[in-house]
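User: Please predict the structure of the protein below. I'd like the answer in structure-token form so I can feed it into my own downstream comparison script.

Assistant: Understood. Taking the following sequence of 265 residues as input:
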Amino acid sequence: MQYNPIKKRLSTFFSKYSFLRVFFYKLLDLLLLRAWHIHKELKQWAEDKRDKTLHILDAGAGFGQYAYYLSNMSTHWNILAIDNQSEYVCSCNRFFHKHHKQNILYKTENLLDFAPKNNFDLILSVDVIEQIKEDDQVIGNFYKSLKEEGMLLMFVPSCKQEENAKDSFCDEQIRAGYSVEEIRHKLKQAGFNRVETKYTYGKSGSVSWELSMKYPILAVGTSKYLFSILPFYYLFIYPICYILNLIDLYTHHKEGTGILVKAWK
């Protein structure tokens, strides 16, 4: 099943009014387990940095929810969000301008060509490089773009996801996922001197994803009229998913369908 048409449908609906987009961002923060892991790492990274003037890149920013989250963490940070989908860029720029988010700039860029040297203190890339054939080139560009001691924070699917690729949303991806060894090798090859990886979406997280994301999206993809019953579905199912997400967030997983990656220049 293709995920991008559903994403565009959601983007169009929630972009109609600013309050709907803010609600959409909050909804993504609650439902997406990867957002829980990313937020946890960002808070840890930001412990002694909230009062510093820093430059951050959100590479493959999509809906712009992570750029928005970062902008709320500190007004001292300059956030550049880039994506190759111009409709996302235009929509987000209108929203950020309306909400006076002067520390965010959203631009249309291709990650294969974007490599300003020694420019960013942090690069965030969530569910992006698995969609790009020349992923080594993009990782190399991330390395070039970071300042010395800058950090790359990535989230990628693991090769464990390949087992379920048939009934997930991998149609637009070049590859179903990575092994920990493969992603570490690619980062080391690009020049990163320290790499940390950990599995996410273990058993509890995978169940939560199926209940909170997979089945609802499949339903909406089947019929747009099912969209109206989702609020009632989530009223019942979300408390269960919340507990499952907490378990995943604070558990060490020997394997999982997601990999959280931190790498330093």
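That's the full token string. Residues 203-222 form the longest helix (20 residues).
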